From TrEMBL:
GO terms under biological process: defense response
InterPro entries given in the database record: Disease_R_plants (IPR044974), Leu-rich_rpt_3 (IPR011713), LRR_dom_sf (IPR032675)
Domain of life: Eukaryota
Organism of this sequence: Brassica oleracea var. oleracea
Keywords: Leucine-rich repeat, Repeat
Protein name per Swiss-Prot or TrEMBL: Uncharacterized protein
UniProt keyword annotation of Repeat present: yes
The keyword Repeat is assigned to this record: yes
Pfam families: LRR_3
Species classification: Eukaryota, Viridiplantae, Streptophyta, Embryophyta, Tracheophyta
């Protein structure tokens, strides 16, 4: 029954032009929104992209996402065995809009998150198999963050102080083989579930 409900929801979104601009799943629609974000892109609330379905490689500045002021959910995912994502990110500022609740990007290509990132309402940050060397500099406003997953980020060398993220409940660090240790603040935090693999 749930598949029927999902199909009906998709048909409703397809038939309602206003909803179709808010919830983007089709690769062509997403590429158009990212290229022409001033032409209706500000209405977008959710983008879910399987990057393997892109017809060709696509590059964009990070600030394009940051200017989507109503964006709440962003998910860019790919097959595990794919070498890299076809969606490439050019380093820039304002990647994470304040409205964002979920940020999921497999094989995230940047070495660090922009220093001006203050997604106050962000609940879940998933950057599995990323190129991150460090998460961020400074102390971003992440008071709502409950889950942080950087599994398989083999270039990650250090974690910042996480003591200010008082809502954090889950921390996934498996297969971060260059990570030399974890901040002492984690042991004093309220994290209920965390996993970590020491450097070999």
């Amino acid at each position: 029954m749930h598949k029927l409900v999902e199909q009906m929801a998709r048909e409703m979104i397809r038939d309602d032009s206003s909803l179709s601009r808010k919830f983007l799943r089709d690769p062509q629609d997403i590429c158009y929104a990212l290229t022409n974000f001033r032409d209706g892109g500000e209405q977008t609330e959710c983008m879910s992209l399987h990057s393997c379905n892109l017809a060709c490689a696509f590059s964009m500045k990070a600030s394009v996402v940051g200017h989507m002021h109503n964006l709440k959910f962003l998910k860019v995912y790919k097959h595990v065995d794919s070498r890299e994502s076809k969606l490439q990110l050019i380093p820039d500022q304002h990647l994470l809009p304040p409205s964002l609740r979920l940020f999921h990007w497999d094989a995230f290509p940047l070495r660090t998150l922009p220093s001006d990132a203050d997604p106050y309402f962000l609940v879940e940050l998933n950057l599995r198999h990323s190129d991150l060397e460090t998460l961020w500099s400074g102390t971003p406003m992440l008071e709502s963050l409950k889950r942080l997953d950087v599994t398989g980020s083999k270039h990650l060398k250090q974690l910042p102080d996480l003591s200010s993220i008082t809502s954090l409940e889950e921390l996934a660090l498996e297969h971060c083989t260059r990570l030399k240790g974890i901040p002492a603040s984690i042991g004093k935090s309220n994290i209920l579930d965390w996993s970590f693999q020491m450097q070999k």
